[in-house]
């Protein structure tokens, strides 16, 4: 059987602009075991700016915004097999910046793996605690549909059908590199692009995020997978899977991993609609919720 994306793509200039998303991610908050090693990773290896540090907490990101906030409270490294964070993606704003981020890792001799998802070009690496991170260049203009004949595959706009996790030619990616300055801060346009979560129940989690206003992109029960978007061209903003096994609990709080993440709605109306469908705790116009799995989420607007 050949099944394609549940949402038809609209070929308009507006959709191809990320600004058409009705929400964005704020910083992701992580519990880690060693602040010094974590700061070294995010600054020296990745190229983020240490925006501020106090006690056992540090805020890292670009010159203009925080992307990752870390807390030295964990006693154990990240352990696989639990529900919660699978990985999160740091999105490069253009091909040059994506190439720069990869080249920096190569120069620093830091290991990573490379994958072409068609809707994005991606590399994967682990932080010092084993938390998996994706650097991505979103390329929705190359994507046509999902095909589930002979496994999970992607058809691109040229009619080519290939694996959803195909080979990414790093040499070709590096042809876009125009800035070989190794130790500069990453671009201000860099952002948290998407989160991929291990869910206790994919179907229930998918329903939950739709109640928040996210739009279903793919729902593939056979593959224990679903993903949703914020309305723009790139529709893979929150992904859900149960590849680790159904109904697995969250990791113990002593383990390194995600503390919480933030969804920042662009309008008060979108936020209000989301809050109608969930239980929440309000703190100074900031709203705390939990998803079906138990992940902590902070809902805000741009004016919060």
Overall geometry comes to globular
Q: Beta-strand level of the residues, as a percent range?
A: 35-45%
What's the β-strand tally? 20
Could you list the spans in which at least 5 consecutive residues all have pLDDT below 50?
A: 1-17
End-to-end Cα distance, whole Å, is: 47 Å
With helices defined by DSSP (H or I, 4 residues minimum), what is the helix count?
Answer: 5
What average pLDDT do the residues reach?
Answer: 93
Listing every helix as H and every strand as E from the N terminus to the C terminus, the arrangement reads: EEHEEEEHEEEEEEHEHEEEEHEEE
Taking the sheet with the most strands, its summary is: 9 strands, mixed
Indicate the structural class: alpha+beta
Oligomerization category of the chains in this entry: single chain
Range of helix content: 10-25%
| Estimated radius of gyration | 19 Å
What do you see in this structure?
Helix content is 15%, strand content 36%. It contains 5 helices and 20 strands. Strands 1, 2, 3, 4, 5, 17, 18, 19 and 20 form a 9-stranded mixed β-sheet that branches. Strands 7-8-9-6-13-16-15-14 form an 8-stranded mixed β-sheet, with helices on one face. Strands 10-11-12 form a 3-stranded antiparallel β-sheet, with no helix packed on it.
């Amino acid at each position: 059987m050949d099944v394609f994306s549940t949402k038809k793509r609209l070929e308009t200039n507006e959709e191809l602009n990320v600004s058409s998303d009705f929400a964005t991610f704020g910083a992701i908050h992580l519990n880690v075991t060693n602040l010094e090693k974590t700061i070294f990773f995010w600054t020296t290896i990745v190229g983020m700016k240490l925006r501020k540090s106090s006690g056992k907490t540090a805020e890292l990101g670009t010159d203009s915004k925080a992307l990752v906030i870390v807390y030295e409270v964990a006693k154990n490294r990240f352990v696989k097999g639990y529900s919660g964070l699978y990985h999160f993606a740091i999105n490069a704003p253009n091909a040059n910046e994506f190439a720069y981020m990869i080249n920096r890792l190569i120069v620093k001799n830091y290991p990573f793996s490379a994958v072409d998802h068609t809707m994005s070009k991606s590399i994967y690496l682990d932080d010092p605690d084993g938390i998996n991170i994706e650097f991505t260049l979103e390329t929705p203009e190359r994507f046509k549909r999902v095909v589930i004949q002979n496994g999970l595959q992607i058809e691109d706009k040229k009619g080519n059908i290939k694996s959803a996790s195909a080979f990414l030619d790093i040499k070709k990616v590096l042809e876009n590199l125009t800035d070989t300055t190794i130790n500069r801060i990453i671009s201000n346009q860099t952002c948290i692009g998407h989160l991929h979560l291990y869910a206790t129940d994919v179907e229930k989690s998918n329903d939950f995020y739709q109640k928040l206003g996210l739009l279903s992109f793919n729902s593939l029960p056979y593959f224990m997978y679903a993903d949703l978007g914020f309305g723009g061209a790139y529709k893979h903003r929150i992904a859900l899977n149960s590849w680790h096994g159904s109904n697995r609990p969250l990791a113990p709080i002593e383990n390194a991993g995600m503390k919480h993440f933030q969804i920042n709605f662009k309008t008060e109306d979108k936020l209000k609609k989301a809050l109608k469908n969930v239980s929440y705790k309000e703190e100074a116009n900031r709203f705390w919720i939990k998803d079906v799995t138990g992940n902590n989420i902070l809902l805000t607007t741009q004016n919060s």
